[in-house]
Amino acid sequence: MVWHRLTLGRIDASSTSDFKKLLDFKAKALIGVFIFAALGVIITPKLAFRERAGDKMAIAGDNALVTQSFTESRINATAILGQNLVNTIIPYQVSADYSYSQLPMLEWPVDEPADYQQITWAILTVFFVGIAVLLLPRKSPALAFYIGSALLVLAPTANIFVQIGTIRADRLVYPGIWFMAGAVAWVLQNLLARIEKHGKTLPVLIIGTATVAIVSVATYTHFRAVDWRTNKQFWAAMQATAPDSYKAMLGYGSNLVKQDDYELAKTGLEYVEAGFKKITDVPWTPSQGASVLARQTAGSCWLLFATMAKEKGEINDLRLALSKSETHLREALSKIDEMNAPRLKSPDQKEYANLARGDVIAIALSKALRAQNKAAEAVDVLKGSFRINKLNAGYLEALGFSCIESGATEEGEAYLFQALVLNDTNRELSRVLNTWMRTRAVPEQKAPLAKQDANSEENLAPPLDIEDPSVREKLRDAALKVDGYLKEENRPLEAARLQRALRLILYREWNAPDTSNLSIISP
For residues 397 and 446, what is the distance between their CA atoms, to the nearest angstrom? Predict the structure, then answer.
């Protein structure tokens, strides 16, 4: 509204002196806005949005500006703002990902071509903004309104005033496109109005050129839209448009590994390792989220490749894949433990909400260890993060099978029942548990290197018989344990829901019509 008032706003002027007063008011107001914005760029990030190292590093993989000095980061951010303005009109360089290190970055001392490129972009952007804010409101208020509005819309996420979780994202530019399109339309309209006096050829040429440009951009957009059609196509497009992004390398590589093609998987692992090395070689990631993501992705991909190698009988590849997987996943879990260590010292259970969850990594690592006949080590790994993940059904299931394979069969069986209590709709686990109790063997679906499509339940026993006294007793014990976990974390509502659900499961209405006073949690 303020910007509209300073540009398109109108005040009735009955005399020349009134009109001059209006111009003086606008000039002073514009200068004031410019000074206020400049001070905001300098002061706001230092005071209201102080950049704490711990918070900065967590987003460095997506926004490397947070790792730079104030001067470096603002020059780069200003350059990116200029690039975004150009992309609102000519989307010549757009991608789904701009993670480290896809975008060129200025770094002191200035000695690389990318440094001079960023400086040039920053200077041009500042020059353009200066004209739009200081000159255009007097000369062309409508054009000033459109361009200034685009700048105002882009400013909050431009990493100039406040640094956000991404260095650049095309979705953040969409609102500015409307205003820039208005600016282009205004320029064309006024240009045509001026040259129509000099003949008809030039206006027709301009209109034709504009039409070709619009059709070209629309066609380009249409063909780029198919990038989102399938997961495979998306990652291929990301690798093509962001070849230097560590996330694109990890995502594209992991997608190739998932294609269930042995040679493609090998190529995919090369991309994964390249992305892993890129992000872990920089000094600001050793204990942060980007590093964990890279290690987790690499470890999981090698574990999936191990499954393929086992199926093909490639023993050397199998050994290499399991070793690589174990190394990457151990490192990832270690980083998560480092991040959680300060909060785990606090007795306040609310801190659990802020803990980094490592259950997926721990489960994958347990599979890699079990595949190497290291079930006891798998148990140690899982129990090491038991305090954080004890209410995760998948985690308890992995711990249960690891215990069984290490020889602690009763303990493992107890964990499996706890997993079933937490997820009582898991029919497969119920059948797996019943199969284990009957055969004392872990079904092939739950083997550490079982194929993802090994979901057939043909070899499994029927679901557990709730009327079996031994089953009821095991469920009762498991429920008591889970109830204790919930109370430890101060989650009484979930504990109450658990009691109600288990009363309905274990006490059928036709056997006990009044279940209101029954508590399966009671010992």
Answer: 10
Nearest CA-CA partner of 265 in 317, 332, 210 = 317
Report CA-CA distances (Å) from 47 to 68, 70, 162: 18, 13, 11
The one-letter code for the residue type at 49 is F
pLDDT tens across 3-15, in order? 777 777 743 334 4
Contacts 24+ apart (CB under 8 A), 375-380: 375/402, 375/403, 375/405, 375/406, 375/407, 376/406, 378/402, 378/405, 378/406, 379/403, 379/406, 379/408
Amino acid identity of residue 327, one-letter, is T
Tens-place pLDDT, residues 378-433: 999 999 988 888 889 999 999 999 999 999 999 999 999 999 988 878 888 999 99
Region class of 282: left (phi > 0), else alpha (psi between -120 and 50), else beta? beta
Q: What is the rounded distance in angstroms from the CA atom of residue 124 to the CA atom of residue 118?
A: 10
What CA–CA distance (Å, rounded) separates 150 from 183? 9
Which region holds residue 478: left if phi is over 0, alpha if psi is between -120 and 50, else beta?
A: alpha
**Tens digit of each residue's pLDDT (9 = 90 or more) over 458-479:** 788 898 888 888 888 898 889 8
Q: Which conformational region is residue 140 in: left (phi greater than 0), alpha (psi within -120 to 50 degrees), or beta?
A: beta
On whether the CB atoms of residues 490 and 349 are closer than 8 A, the answer is: yes
Measured distance CA(338)–CA(332) in Å, rounded: 10
